[in-house]
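User:
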Amino acid sequence: MDIDFLEYKVRNGDTLNSIASRLGITGEELKSFHNSHCQRMNRIWFEHLNEVKSILVPIHIKTEKQKDQERTDTLPSSQQSDSFFAKTYNVSESFESPFETPLTIDYRIYLDVRKDRNKNLYIVSYRQDQFKTNGETPDNKMSELSIACMKSIMPIDFILSDSGNITGLADHKKVTQTFTEKRKDLEDFFIGEIAEKYMDTFEKNIADEQFFLQQFQSTLLFQTLFPKMDWFHKKTDWTENLHFLQNSFSIPCNMSIEQKYGDQDRIISILTGNNTEFYSLQELKAGYKYNQPSEDPVSGEFIIEYTTHKKNKNLLQASGNVHLWREAESVQQHTITITQG
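Assistant: Predicted structure:
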């Protein structure tokens, strides 16, 4: 509550509620305000004001409803808008595991979001480049081939629903045709049986529309970058299905959110989720659930943090962290930071 107040002389018949109603607040809010500003001996404990000579009342006060509305007004809309995303973001992903060497991948992504007025949905054109692995440009042939194949079909147009969900590909046929047309150029540069088999597999994978879409939807990048817009406005815990590993099945998680204020222009929304169903690491990596309960299930925590602009309501930065552990032992951690740039 604001600190400005004056001393009101209590009159016959006055009650906390009658005074509070004239101020547009509740009796509990008025009692809380008075007790937080008066001396200890002058605190009020009851609704009636017997023996109370004066009460401190605020000159300017915001009710809980007003505060909640102001908070809502600083958050992104619960529906998608074409101004939520910037045109470019710098991305850094790190992978840590006690079984493997730590790996960091940096790259840049480009987004072009446009509204389809006829279908009440958005089209997101997505592409990426400037890859570096552990600070160095990839220089082995397989990494180069993998990046070249993906770049050959970009930009890829995704369908983004009004609620913020990536729901499909805008033109899957265009993706497959583009690769068919560009494959000859790739074959001229990447020669050999291994390269040919890789391109065969890549072409087969992108031909399966659902599988190709899931490859993106299940990444930590897409789960972090494309939030459901109603997440920002949740007031109670809820259940969300999330992918702890790319191309694995989704797992129900119990989610909660809190908002913190940074500087005067930014608000930080922090989502935390923990799995409510338990599977082994082998099941998650295979993307297949066994028919019997796992004897060595892993627990997982999902943390996603969004920094948005209070006035422009656009996404300034996002970060995601997926941590898997077995009992007290960490088995895998994947972190991503997405910064407007």
